[in-house]
Design brief:
The chain contains 15 helices and 15 strands. By secondary structure, the protein is an alpha/beta fold. The longest helix has 26 residues.
């Protein structure tokens, strides 16, 4: 199997080693160095796939800039290092479709080059949707520049296709181009529909427009477009604007996730569980279930083996619950207590999942975490159209019944005596 790598072509060995070290600190991909064009060719022609290459323009065994055509011929995304900056060099590099260029004038430049390389590697996981309402020169250029940056691009030809696809998929960025050729009402309706479901932080919209009708541009930005740039954009301007919008969206999603999940287990936290579960109750109606789960004698675990082992036990149980109930809402409500919520067609299948969790923890905990633990479980259903609080409360009563009857059991609420 061909191995993916990052290639550094730099004749100064100290600089090559520095770049190799700094890039390696931020990626698990192998970083290979070459100190001449000959060495670079040997790497490229070997059994590897060079995802991104950062290359010096001046190498000892060839004329200035000779590495760039070689790399681009091999479809290798290229970042250029140069000690001497001129406007002529800049234009030449972007005409040759390099991803970026860096002037070697200090550590800040080296750090920028490293960040650029890492971004280019990661861009293949970034999804950009391009709503191209015409196929003019600007649209084709835009698509070409995005491909150079290694983004994953999906092209749409009309606004309805975007709206139909959005419920099942969501891009990291949506770019609109050729808007002037489309009925303005359709575009406004599309933007309004998107903003009803996604904030500007969740799904940024960028507008590339050929027209000089700034009134229309401002109107669209008021309705939810994040950013605008004219069709006369440079490659660098596009890169900066795209990166900025995507970075803001990604950072927002990271912060949003931090507020939603439990730091120890990576399950939903209590607050977000109740927030998210309301929509599940509405969707499932009478066919909704709740499961409450609690580690038996957890205080004894902490007192006997220490809190570190207690945390290990919580993580183990959380992973078992998540893996078993992977299509439902799973949360850690606090301490050693967990909850699952979802809809069901056959209650017996949910009971079977509960029993799977119980049995696995009983039989595998000693092997997995070094100590034997068990778990008690309570299950309730929404047959009487209970509220979320009631449904969880009923599951909690069933959990209590499991505890009272000896622990390490699954109970269904209401509990039928006799």
């Amino acid at each position: 199997m061909t191995q993916n790598i990052i290639l550094v072509i730099e004749d100064q060995k100290a600089m090559a080693s520095l770049l190799q070290e700094k890039i390696s600190q931020q990626t698990t991909l192998p970083v290979i160095t070459a100190h001449s064009l000959k060495e670079a060719k040997e790497v490229i022609d070997s059994d590897v796939k060079v995802l991104v290459c950062v290359t010096d323009l001046n190498l000892p065994d060839t004329e200035e800039g000779a590495s760039v055509p070689l790399l681009l011929k091999k479809n290798i995304t290229t970042v250029v290092l140069t000690a001497d900056y001129t406007e002529e060099t800049r234009k030449k590099m972007f005409k040759q479709h390099v991803a970026d260029y860096v002037i070697k004038d200090g550590m800040a430049a080296i750090n920028y080059a490293v960040r650029t390389v890492i971004s280019l590697v990661e861009n293949s996981d970034i999804n950009i949707w391009l709503l191209a309402l015409d196929n003019n020169k600007t649209t084709r250029r835009l698509l070409g520049l995005l491909n150079i940056q290694r983004y994953h691009i999906s092209v749409f030809e009309d606004s309805q296709s975007v709206l139909k696809t959005l419920p099942s998929k969501m891009p990291d960025l949506l770019i609109l181009t050729g808007v002037a050729s489309e009925n303005e009402k359709k575009i406004v309706d599309m933007i309004s529909s998107i903003r009803e479901n996604y904030t500007q932080n969740q799904l940024p919209l960028m507008l590339c427009d050929d027209s000089h009708d700034m009134a229309q541009v401002i109107k669209l930005m008021k309705y939810g477009v994040n950013d605008f740039y004219n069709s006369g954009f440079t490659a660098e301007e596009l890169t900066v604007r795209v990166n900025l919008n995507i970075s803001q969206a990604i950072n927002y999603k990271k912060l949003e996730r931090i507020s939603q999940v439990d730091a120890l287990t990576d399950l939903y936290n209590r607050r977000y569980f109740f927030e998210k579960s309301e929509s599940v109750i509405k969707e499932c109606g009478a066919h909704c279930f709740a499961v409450m789960l609690d580690i038996d004698f957890f205080k004894v675990v902490n007192d006997t083996y220490g809190h570190a082992k207690g945390d290990e036990a919580i993580i183990f149980v959380a992973n078992v619950i998540q893996d078993t109930f992977d299509s439902f809402v799973v949360a850690r409500l606090g301490g050693e207590e967990f909850c699952v919520l979802g809809g069901y067609e056959e209650l017996s299948k949910i009971q079977a999942l509960c029993e799977t969790v119980r049995q696995f923890i009983e039989s595998e905990s000693k092997n997995k975490i070094g100590i034997p633990i068990t778990i008690s479980i309570g299950l309730s259903t929404n047959n009487n159209l209970l509220t979320l609080d009631d449904l969880v409360s009923e599951a909690d009563k069933a959990l209590y019944a499991s505890k009272e009857s000896g622990r390490n059991k699954v109970s269904l609420q209401p509990v039928v005596n006799g």
